[in-house]
Amino acid sequence: xxxxxRGLSLTLGLAATFLAPAQTQAQPAYxxxxxxPSSTVRPSSAxxxxxxxxxxxxxxxxxxxxxxxxxxxxYNPDGWARQMRVETQLSRNAYTGxxxxxxxxxxxxxxxxxxxxxxxxxxxxxxxxxGGGLVTLRQRGLPFGSGWSVSNxxxxxxxxxxxxxxxxxxxxxxxxxxxxxxxxxxNAGQGLRLQGSxxxxxxxxxxxxxxxxxxxxxxxxxxxxxxxxxxxLAARVADASGASYYDNNPAQTSVIDASSAQFSxxxxxxxxSLQANVIATSDQLLGTTPAGLWVDTEARIGPRSFSGxxxxxxxxxxxxxxxxxxxxxxxxxxSTWQSRQWSVDGTLDVLRSIAQPTGTGIFMTGxxxxxxxxxxxxxxxxxxxxxxxxxxxxxxxxxxxxxxxxTSLRADISQELEQSRSRQLTLDHDWNMSTGWSLxxxxxxxxxxxxxxxxxxxxxxxxINAPVTSQLSVRANASANSSxxxxxxxxGTAINTGVSWRFAPEWSLExxxxxxxxxxxxxxxxxxxxxxxxxxxATSGNSLFVALRWNARAGSGSDPLGGTRAQGGARIVGTVFxxxxxxxxxxxxxxxxxxxxxxxxxxxxxxxDAQGRFDFPFVGTGLRVISVQNDTLxxxxxxxxxxxxxxxxxxxxxxxxxxxxxxxxxx
Length: 667
Fold this sequence. Notes:
Blueprint lengths: L1 H18 L23 H6 L33 E14 L5 E13 L5 E11 L2 E12 L4 E11 L18 E11 L4 E14 L5 E4 L3 E11 L2 E13 L12 E14 L2 E12 L7 E11 L2 E10 L4 E2 L2 E2 L4 E11 L3 E11 L7 E12 L4 E11 L3 E13 L2 E12 L3 E12 L6 E13 L2 E14 L5 E13 L8 E12 L2 E11 L23 E14 L14 E10 L18 E4 L3 E4 L5 E8 L1 E7 L8 E2 L5 E6 L4 E10 L4
Parallel strand pairs: 30-37
Antiparallel strand pairs: 1-2, 1-29, 2-3, 3-4, 4-5, 5-6, 6-7, 7-8, 7-9, 9-10, 10-11, 11-12, 12-13, 13-14, 14-17, 15-16, 17-18, 18-19, 19-20, 20-21, 21-22, 22-23, 23-24, 24-25, 25-26, 26-27, 27-28, 28-29, 30-33, 31-32, 31-34, 34-36, 35-37
């Protein structure tokens, strides 16, 4: 506790310095969105002076609202735009097989936008758990001479990779989380990008006060990318020495000494692209050097898109020891078509094992959604695998609007080999509520047969967001499941509830309670190219988290993130959630993903809270891109597609984003 008090004193001292006027000329600020209602300057005048604040068109005879004539009380408009949040954190954890633990910590989140050094930010949780906390320092967009821009990160970071290596592809190359540093040098004019990183592998741990669990060994990487017109070339290497990515106390067989190299070549024109990738891994422990090759091509013609390619992934292939799809070769085709009423997609893979080429297999997927009317829509889909054992799954869904809200009825069926089959029916409903309130419920029932043993399943879930007053809000997500027959202890209950009370303009008190009892059934993906799953089984237990939070903004408040004062600003709030049924909507039974790093325009960052929420309070209008860092997601979850969501922000708009992450390999 003494260390926590010292940490709190230090962070409050930093906060006082942070909110003091910066060494630059003050600019007039209008934090409500950059609007100066008392001004009568016309838009043409603002356009002539790019430093002028945003000006609305003046409507003769219309008086401005009284509360728009002044900045919020206590707001300091001097200096660079900056934000800070400091919070004290207390938590108590009780998990099966472990003694109860209580912990205390300090959270520090800050950002300052400088004219000459880019964006500087800190994201830290100090103390909180034995073994340390979670600290990340970022500097992004530092302008250098001759057109170069530099971004650096130190602390708990994800492994960097050139843009070509992260492009959407039929074959996924995994990354890893590490404690270390990285640097990224780019020159848009010359089409060059250079990267490097080094550190120790690890994983995120801690129930509600996060920490980085450092694992043995070291990892490092180098990367480069060159863009010349329609052509792009990227290369990267990674090395793992004595590393283990998944075990706290690894056995000797899980310690990895491996290095990998990847080369990517891409040709892209409007509506068409072709990319080839080559990868090779040297595993010193196994004494092998497996390699892989895959090619992806895509074409867009109006509302239709077509893609295809081939792949050759030798047995034992990995990315510096991190498992990926291997021992498979084949080709694939994929097509999608969208109209105002229809959305259809399908995939066909032809596959063959490299180690045992005894026969050819297939993997097929298909999905279709039909908007019958403005109130009714229907959907259906299926996936079939005839390779390394037969498996299939399918679903049908009906969604309709009614006087009580939006209702969805979904039926899921699946079968894995001859050992397991399931049938499940789910009824979801989003209830019509007052503005700002939300209520969703889910009821499910079904039957599972595993090795001849039958289980009957029943479950229910509820999710609610209740802004009781302008200062007090309550959020809760709860689910309960039971089974009869078979392993009756397989299911249990889960509760995640939070209360937030803003008792002063810059002060708030927040409490979260988590309860997990029993185990959760997990259906492994049937996609043959899905990366091998390595994850920990969740244990039963409960945890309580209480935070006293101080949140403030200062500086040129009319300068939004990624914009200019002439643009005005808007707000982005959202949730990263586990989209178990891969339908793009957060159902009552689907929880938020905590501790995930979210990027705005790949420049500004936020970390999701215990319920998966994130917030960018003041953002420039226009086209913005939200992306999720896959390395901070728990396995086997991943961001779909290229991991990005594009938004068109309007002035003074509060735009909400539900970002669903899916199990790697789900159709």
